[in-house]
Amino acid sequence: MKKGVRAIIFDVGGVLAIGRYSLFKKRGHRMLGVHEFITKKLKISLDQWFDSIDTSYANSIEGGHSKKQVLKIFSKNLKSSPEKIEKLFIKAYKKNFKQNKQLFKQAFKLQKKGYKIAILSDQWPVSKEALMPEKIYKKFNEVVVSCEAGMRKPNLKIYKMVLKKLKIKPFQAIFIDNQKWNLQPAKKIRMKTILFKNNKQLFKQATWKNLFK
After folding, report:
1. Contact, 149 vs 160, CB < 8 A?
2. Pairing of strands 116-121, 142-145
């Protein structure tokens, strides 16, 4: 076990759940983003879509609205049903993301070596259900998701929350995220960080490789 490091904390979207776009790029296809996919199905513009979900979507990421509440707001604004909107979201997430099986395999190897593994991710209830299957994520030592924590990155409190749950000091954790601005608060409290781009880049990182020595 690398001296001082006791836990590895992973983001989900863009790290453990990665976009499928790169899988189709060479074939000349274009994968629509989640929001684009839904607007195409509903036959509305992106502007109409974002106006209809407005602040309720952002609030739900921080737990301000429950899944039932936010879907009711969306369906009312879009003149649809909550069930249809939820199904569209689930389908969009499934089509646009895939589980990063290679990284999961590596994470669970580290867990067997004695490291704690955890999740720190911004999600709203529907994306959590779609991107974070319980059969996989229940294996992690701790899971902190914004819609349940009542706050989101880069709020420093949510980083401290996952550290408290893991019962470790900041310098004993490595945090992996695909956005630089989410790494800044972690660095501020002396957590080790890795900016994730892809598996190949991550697995070449000295910080990562040293965990397996």
Report:
1. no
2. parallel
- What separation, in Å, do the N-terminal and C-terminal C-alpha atoms of the chain show? 7
pLDDT per position as a tens digit, 142-193: 999 999 999 999 999 999 999 999 999 999 999 999 999 999 999 999 999 9
7-16+100-212 to CATH, choices 1.10.3720.10, 3.40.50.2000, 3.30.70.3040, 3.40.50.1000: 3.40.50.1000
146: left (phi over 0), alpha (psi -120 to 50) or beta: alpha
Q: Where are the domains of the chain?
A: 7-16+100-212, 23-97
Sign of the torsion formed by the C-alpha atoms of 66, 123, 9 and 96: positive
| Alpha carbon 127 to chain centroid, angstroms | 9
Taking a C-beta distance cutoff of 8 angstroms, is the pair 23, 131 a contact? Answer: no
Q: How far is CA 167 from CA 86, 177, 184, in A?
A: 36, 21, 21
> Tens of pLDDT along 38-50?
999 999 999 999 9
